[in-house]
């Protein structure tokens, strides 16, 4: 049975569920940062997914990227599947701007997270969820 890693559950807010993945908002208001987590038990690498699941993951990733580009109009979208700390397969989608506080370095470990207010979190989650529905493939 699928269970979200406790670190992701602690650090993120649920935006919505897609056919394969949970869509999470990293609770750090310094960067527009979402995470896709395939709802498949025990998966650590993309290659651990079936071919059909891999294709669905890329469709969902592209849809999420389009939604984030539409909402934030970033200078660059960063996608990463590191898994060095959280082994459960998850894909980071981070909208980056030349003026953000970590540019051009990676966001990891640069600055302590600054949580969204309840209103900001609700607004971000609703907006991304609505855009995901609009951009569905």
UniProtKB/TrEMBL annotation:
One of its GO terms (molecular function) is catalytic activity. Residues 1-103 form the HIT domain. Pfam families: HIT. It comes from the Bacteria. InterPro entries: HIT-like, HIT-like_sf, HIT_Hint. This is Histidine triad (HIT) protein.
